[in-house]
Design brief:
globular; 320 residues; 48% helix; alpha/beta; 7 strands; Rossmann fold; disordered N terminus; 2 domains
Length: 320
């Protein structure tokens, strides 16, 4: 693949220029990316999510075709802090963020909020795709906890940008992954596949050469299909905005930022507990739709403003 890679942690005082993403909204980022060069496609931001031990780091290495994230078979999580690495695929820049154990069923503490805040900073202004990693044939209650934690950490709307990635694809022994998913007797897995709008693929993280290239091409096909569905927009929320401000030095200090991280996570937890059919649930779905369809939202806002201007003008004219 000839990918060019480098690895950074959020503890470094200076972000490499390749990690500098432009300030702005989803629409501004997409326009700037598309206008940056007529020959180079916009960069792609991916984040690996899921329970500890499911193979997130190994999957990141497979995507980048290099061993940049530490990945070992251990009883405890190997990844201790958020890390980011970059590479290229078919001329496109890819940023991959590996996450520590922030998707576990444990009481949140200041270290966890710091890890979540770091993750937001590395992904700001927002990820295009969340890769939810799980092991083939071992989708357990811990995985369901991780799914809920993804919604608590990033907001329920993030599920519209999730791609389900099964590790240990080699265990299929030549069988079809689509057949496996279609015939699974695990109701939780069936429900998740439907929630992800059947966006999934499989990886053998021991693969090399042509096999590694084929599975990466399959993943990128799913990713590009998701991008077309969202018209190139990435996922964002208020906390990504705060993280972007902090990274650019125009926001509040880090202590205030972490307080906002904690407040945002608690708010998203409460929203998950609220009934989706109530007024707050309707407003939440409207907000998620607006974030996912920024161009249509902008067009509708402009139309409403024009209509108001016409009505005001007619009112003034009628008064005379």
């Amino acid at each position: 693949m000839g990918n060019r890679l480098f690895l950074l942690s959020v503890n470094q005082k200076r972000m490499d220029v390749h990690l500098k993403s432009r300030y702005g909204t989803m629409a501004e980022d997409r326009v700037e990316d598309n206008q940056s060069s007529s020959s180079s496609p916009p960069s792609l931001r991916l984040v690996l999510v899921g329970r500890s031990g499911c193979g997130k780091s190994a999957t990141g290495n497979s995507i980048l075709c290099q061993c940049v994230f530490e990945s070992r078979l251990r009883a405890q999580a190997v990844t201790r802090i958020c890390q980011v690495a970059m590479g290229t695929w078919n001329g496109r820049s890819i940023l991959v963020v590996d996450t520590p154990s922030i998707f576990e069923a444990k009481a949140p503490n200041q270290d966890m909020y710091k890890d979540i805040g770091d993750c937001y900073q590395l992904l700001a202004p927002g990820p295009h795709v969340l890769l939810l990693v799980t092991q083939l044939g071992r989708f357990t209650a811990q995985d369901m906890v991780a799914v809920r934690r993804v919604k608590e950490v990033f907001g329920a709307g993030a599920m519209r940008h999730v791609v389900l990635l099964f590790t240990h694809k080699e265990d299929l022994n030549g069988e079809s992954l689509h057949e496996y998913v279609a015939t699974t007797d695990n109701p939780s897995l069936r429900s998740l596949v439907q929630e992800c709008d059947r966006r999934y693929c499989g990886f053998n993280n021991q693969a090399t050469g042509e096999e590694q290239g084929r599975q990466l091409a399959e993943l990128m096909a799913v990713v590009e299909s998701l991008e077309r569905q969202h018209q190139g927009a990435f996922y964002t929320n208020d906390l990504f905005f705060e993280a972007q401000m902090l990274r650019e030095g125009s926001g509040e200090n880090h202590t205030h930022y972490l307080a906002k991280v904690q407040g945002c996570i608690e708010k998203q937890k409460r929203e998950l507990k609220e009934p989706s059919h109530g007024p707050s649930g309707v407003l939440l779905r409207v907000k998620e739709w607006m974030l996912s369809h920024v161009q249509i939202t902008a067009f509708l806002v402009i139309c409403v403003l024009i209509l108001l201007a016409i009505l005001i003008s007619l009112g003034i004219t009628g008064g005379y």
